[in-house]
């Protein structure tokens, strides 16, 4: 060891000089250094961002699987000009994590576009990030209107509908078609729940429905007995819940346990197989609204479900899987047409028009928002979600629980 | 002023919720009493207990035990033992090796272990991300007294919880191992000198506390008919808070704290405008005010430290 | 001295490789290298001893070398704004960690509401700039002060509360903060506050990509350098505090409050001081985060993040200033690196922390024993002073 020797010899000035020299050297090295990349084939990367862990993971996993399915199909297609690789990122339904995931996707120059987000709070957070990165991002599940309507960025598009159309149709259905007059609204306090409550209230006021109370509850709350006991005393005809499946199950099951005699009306957030499996008998007669048509009824739904089954995924595709699937195909279509160039792909995607996707015709407005022509009403019947028009409730063979309570009360 | 039956109904709701918290809180307080540690994965042990119970109901159904009372009893026994043993394993893995390290190390280790347990349920339980239906194994149906709806199963749940709490009390105060626990709680070194087997006592404490968490988990499943892998997060936080507000190390304090939390949350949601959104604010704010006047919990030992 | 720099350069190469390795072979090589190093450090005390001595003797050189490498890092990460962002986050957590360490490590005041105090800093910046039109720098300066003042106001009534009960009070505060931010209208509800203006320095906006030495770096490099300055400043302040009489006094509070009182230490004043300084640092980091990301929302400051902050301090080593730096630089990039493991990520992250604690029960870089005397930094003249055993809350 020459410790002692150097200790004596090195003065502070030498240290400074040495440090500077070393610093310049290291920085120069950094400047020269180029990250090496494999360039064997023309590879184009696509990223998927969604919640893979946490309370909404089942929807995220269904979306991811559908994304992987679409990519696999295009890679198997001999007509494809590029080989598509995938990067799957977890946003955990948390804004910070989502921003990091978006950055991660965007910082890889080979990633040309992203299929992103199920949670509204996360999708709204990354809007500016995608814009700064110049990375086209097509939202496949988040329904908050501001995600497409709150800015003028070219990068953000959305293949699923917003909660505005959904709730106006929902109010129409409840008031005009079923003749309900009094409503108690419960919603979770996230963007999703608050937004739904707001637009449903708007719809009801337009039609003269009466709102007895509006109650916000925390996401992932376990006990709803206090809120439901309070609502029970108001004797509403309908309890509207704006929130996602886990909480929706709790509200409905606890409603029954407390003997609350009202119709349960949900939003797209509860349209999952899990809702019916978990709520069991309590699910019977619950209705809700979803953009597009049910997977089986979609123009290409049967083919989608068959292809999905062939991939032997662990998780079902859930309600928004087809949207993730279509978003992936639309993104790949754009890349095939204009080449792997982010700005060109973004321009192309902004005004997407495609008459024959598995979710039906797709047509984006100037905000890059799909103007979905169709909202489908679903009702839980014998442990399955059935399209309202095909259900025994519509034909009059069965009576919705809420209508029965109303009749009994009268 | 809301009608009387609504107030009574809400009080009953609060009681049910409080009992769930109390059962979790007792575990926290036992661990703290004996070892002076906060076992932060206890909330996830509670989740684990619920999932163990659920899996066992499937097992009994598969082997053809049809009698609901027998199945329920076996579910409880099996989940208790299983969860208790996992609790002991958690202690051996994360608490004992860190016995000589600063207590905050144990806090971090158990916290991380909780994360591992939670994620393991998510990944390895079939479709673990979804909420799971819990079968109704208690008598269904309800009756009304003065407008208050009471379900038979709620009464059964209260009875089971009560029995569990009385048993814990008896074990602590009337048995040999309970005496060891109390001795270790007072002074571990002195207890060892008097011939108490420290390791075995600590193991038993974790077995007891974790088994109680399993009871809480199963009762939770029976009460709400649904369990979810993330229920241990809030369960754990409120369980710990309840134990602390009652006075760490004091079993009665933990029960009191649990009930207090349940009732506070329920009443806040029920009777304050927009209270539902702020129910936890109200509950935690009251807790903070309590701490101002009772810095070691309601029934906590008074530490008069004066020189 | 060259040896010290060589070691640092080697570690630096390893860190860059660990961050950027994407292909399986590269990842495998990096993991193998780290494994060999760890094994070498464990099995060969002589090697370890040589490195430790070298660093102790050439402390100034080591610091200078580390500074140069830290400054050079963005050049190596420039192909990836993402990793620059992650590195910046690690520096933000260094700042937070130093703050919490003053509270928990030095003074033994448990704080499980780190995220809430960071949130107070961040939300103050957001509210002042977006709602009230304050200049960004002014708001940025006020943010940490608000965190400090609110912390002090919270703390004064509960000075008698100690140890695990303090954990309860701070948990409660964290939840209250988060729920209020989520449910009040003026804080933007669940969407939080968006479009927080960025900082400008000498006319250079922090969002424009900087060009240094003819190399254009991603715009996040601005924040990286700013965060580096912030973390360095806070670490230096924490170091000065630790080595001052105040630091020693705070240690006595932690180890035995009654004894401290007997010796004439004002418990109230010093606890409040430690709590306030800590929250000032944490609030500063929160304010920085707000101007960097440009938005704040309740989920960014929930209980989970308080636990991450806590982990940084505890895993690094309580009361250990270099430990905090190490803890942050390890714990923040690690889960990001684990992203390729998808749903197994958090599981393995939790398991990794448990394992690290089992192997190093006092933290990765435990606080050294305080030494006083005529000593050089190495204490070569022998230690005559207090031996502070049992770091942490007295049991």
Task: Flag low-confidence runs of chain A.
Answer: 1-10, 34-39
Quaternary status: heterotrimer
Q: Structural class of the secondary elements of chain B?
A: mainly alpha
The radius of gyration over CA of chain B amounts to 20 Å
Largest sheet properties of chain B: 2 strands, antiparallel
Structure class of chain A: alpha/beta
- Give the largest interface: A-C, 53 and 58 residues
If you average the pLDDT of chain A, what whole number results? 85
Low-confidence stretches of chain B: none
- How much of the residues of chain B is beta strand, in percent? under 5%
In CATH's first tier, which class of the largest domain in chain A applies?
A: Alpha Beta
Number of strands of chain A: 14
Query: Which descriptor suits the 3D outline of chain A?
Result: globular
The span between the termini of chain B is 52 Å
- What proportion strand of chain A? 15-25%
One letter per element, helices H and strands E, the order of chain B comes to: HHHHEEEHHHHEHHH
Give a written overview of the molecule.
The complex is a heterotrimer of chains A (410), B (307) and C (395). Chain A is an alpha/beta fold. Chain A contains 16 helices and 14 strands. The radius of gyration of chain A is 26 Å and the shape is globular. Chain B has a domain of 207 residues. A two-stranded antiparallel sheet of chain B has the order 1-4. In chain B, helix 1 runs antiparallel to helix 10, helix 2 runs parallel beside helix 4 and helix 2 crosses helix 8. The longest helix of chain B is centred in the N-terminal third of the chain and has 32 residues. The interface between A and B is large, with 37 and 40 residues.
């Amino acid at each position: 060891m020459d410790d002692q020797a150097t200790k004596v010899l090195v003065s502070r000035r030498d240290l400074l000089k040495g440090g500077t020299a070393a610093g310049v050297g290291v920085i120069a090295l950094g400047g020269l250094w180029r990250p090496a990349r494999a360039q064997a084939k023309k590879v184009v990367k696509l990223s998927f961002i969604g919640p893979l862990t946490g309370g909404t993971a089942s929807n995220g996993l269904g979306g991811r699987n559908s994304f992987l399915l679409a990519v696999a199909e295009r890679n198997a297609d001999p007509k494809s000009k590029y080989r598509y690789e995938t990067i799957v990122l977890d946003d955990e339904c948390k804004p910070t994590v989502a921003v990091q995931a978006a950055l991660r996707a965007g910082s890889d120059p080979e990633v040309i576009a992203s299929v992103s987000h199920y949670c509204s709070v996360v999708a709204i957070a990354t809007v500016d990030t995608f814009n700064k990165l110049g990375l086209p991002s097509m939202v496949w599940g988040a329904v908050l209107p501001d995600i497409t309507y709150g800015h003028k960025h070219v990068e953000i598009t959305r293949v699923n509908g917003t909660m505005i159309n959904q709730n106006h149709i929902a109010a129409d259905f409840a008031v005009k078609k079923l003749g309900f007059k009094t409503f108690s609204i419960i919603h979770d306090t996230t963007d999703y729940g608050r937004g739904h409550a707001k637009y449903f209230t708007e719809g009801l006021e337009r039609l003269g429905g009466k709102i007895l109370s509006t109650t916000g509850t925390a996401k992932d709350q376990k006990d709803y007995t206090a809120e439901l006991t309070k609502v029970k005393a108001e004797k509403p005809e309908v309890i509207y819940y704006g929130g996602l499946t886990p909480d929706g199950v709790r509200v409905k099951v606890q409603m029954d346990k407390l003997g609350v005699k009202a119709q349960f009306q949900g939003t797209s957030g509860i349209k999952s197989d899990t809702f019916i499996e978990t709520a069991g008998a309590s699910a019977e007669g619950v209705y809700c609204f979803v953009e597009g048509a049910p997977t089986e009824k979609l123009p290409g739904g049967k083919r989608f479900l068959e292809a999905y089954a062939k991939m032997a995924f662990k998780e079902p595709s859930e309600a928004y899987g087809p949207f993730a699937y279509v978003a992936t195909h639309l993104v790949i279509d754009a890349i095939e047409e204009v080449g792997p160039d982010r700005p060109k792909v973004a321009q192309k995607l902004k005004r997407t028009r495609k008459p024959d996707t598995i979710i039906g015709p797709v047509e984006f407005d100037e905000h890059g928002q799909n103007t979905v022509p169709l909202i489908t009403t679903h009702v839980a019947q014998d442990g399955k979600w059935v399209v309202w028009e095909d259900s025994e409730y519509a034909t009059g063979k069965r009576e919705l629980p809420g209508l029965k309570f109303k009749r009994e009360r009268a | 002023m809301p009608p009387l039956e609504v107030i009574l109904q809400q009080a009953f709701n609060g009681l049910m919720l409080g009992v769930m918290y109390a059962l979790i809180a007792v575990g926290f307080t036992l661990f703290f009493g004996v070892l002076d540690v906060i076992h932060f994965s206890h909330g996830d042990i509670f989740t684990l207990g619920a999932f163990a119970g659920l899996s066992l109901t499937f097992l009994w159904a598969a082997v053809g035990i049809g009698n609901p009372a027998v199945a329920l009893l076996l579910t409880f026994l099996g989940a208790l033992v299983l969860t208790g043993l996992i609790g002991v394993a958690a202690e051996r893995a994360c608490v004992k090796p860190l016995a000589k390290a600063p207590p905050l190390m144990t806090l971090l280790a158990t916290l991380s272990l909780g994360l591992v347990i939670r994620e393991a349920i998510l990944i390895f339980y079939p479709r673990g991300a979804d909420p799971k239906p819990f079968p109704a194994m208690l008598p269904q149906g309800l009756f009304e007294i003065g407008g208050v709806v009471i379900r038979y199963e709620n009464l059964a749940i209260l009875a089971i919880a009560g029995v569990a709490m009385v048993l814990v009390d008896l074990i602590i105060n009337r048995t040999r191992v309970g005496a060891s626990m109390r001795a270790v709680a007072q002074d571990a070194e002195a207890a060892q000198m008097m011939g108490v087997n420290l390791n075995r006592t600590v193991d038993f404490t974790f077995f007891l506390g974790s088994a109680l968490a399993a009871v809480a988990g199963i009762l939770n499943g029976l009460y709400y008919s649904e369990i979810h892998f993330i229920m241990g997060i809030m369960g754990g936080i409120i369980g710990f808070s309840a134990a602390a507000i009652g006075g760490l190390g004091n079993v009665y304090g933990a029960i009191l704290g649990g009930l207090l939390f349940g009732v506070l949350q329920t009443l806040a949601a029920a009777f304050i405008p927009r209270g539902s959104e702020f129910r936890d604010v109200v509950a935690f704010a009251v807790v903070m005010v309590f701490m101002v006047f009772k810095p070691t919990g309601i029934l906590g030992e008074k530490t008069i430290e004066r020189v | 001295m060259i040896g010290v720099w060589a070691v640092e350069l080697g570690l630096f190469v390893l860190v860059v490789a660990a961050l950027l390795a994407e292909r399986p072979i590269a990842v495998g090589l990096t993991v193998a290298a780290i494994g060999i190093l760890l094994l070498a450090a464990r099995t060969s005390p002589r090697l370890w001893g040589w490195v430790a001595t070298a660093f102790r003797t050439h402390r100034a050189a080591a610091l200078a070398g580390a500074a140069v490498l830290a400054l050079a890092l963005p050049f190596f990460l420039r192909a990836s704004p993402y990793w620059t962002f992650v590195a910046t986050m690690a520096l933000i957590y260094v700042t937070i960690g130093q703050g919490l360490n003053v509270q928990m490590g030095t003074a033994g005041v448990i704080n499980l509401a780190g995220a809430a105090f960071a949130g107070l800093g961040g939300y103050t910046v957001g509210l002042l700039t977006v709602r009230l039109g304050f200049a960004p720098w002014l708001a940025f300066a006020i943010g940490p002060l608000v965190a400090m003042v609110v912390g002090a106001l919270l703390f004064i009534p509960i000075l008698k509360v100690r140890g695990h009960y303090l954990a309860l009070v701070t948990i409660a505060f964290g939840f209250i903060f988060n729920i209020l931010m989520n449910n009040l209208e003026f804080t933007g509800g669940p969407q939080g506050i968006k479009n927080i203006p960025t900082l400008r320095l000498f006319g250079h906006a922090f969002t424009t990509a900087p060009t240094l030495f003819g190399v254009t770096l991603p715009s996040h490099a601005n924040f990286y350098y700013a965060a580096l300055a912030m973390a360095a400043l806070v670490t230096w302040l924490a170091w000065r505090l630790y080595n001052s009489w105040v630091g020693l006094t705070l240690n006595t509070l932690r180890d035995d409050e009654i004894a401290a009182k007997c010796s004439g230490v004002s418990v109230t004043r010093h606890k409040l001081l430690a709590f306030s300084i800590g929250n000032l640092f944490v609030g500063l980091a929160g304010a920085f985060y707000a101007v960097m990301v440009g938005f704040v929302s309740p989920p960014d400051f929930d209980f989970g993040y308080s636990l991450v902050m806590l982990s940084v301090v505890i895993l690094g080593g309580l009361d250990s200033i270099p430990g905090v730096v190490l803890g942050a630089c390890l714990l923040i990039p690690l889960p990001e690196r684990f992203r390729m493991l998808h749903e197994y990520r958090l599981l393995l992250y939790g398991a990794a922390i448990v394992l690290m604690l089992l192997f190093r029960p006092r933290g990765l870089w435990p606080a050294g024993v305080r030494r006083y005397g005529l000593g050089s930094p190495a204490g070569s003249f022998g230690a005559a002073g207090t031996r502070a055993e049992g770091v942490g809350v007295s049991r």
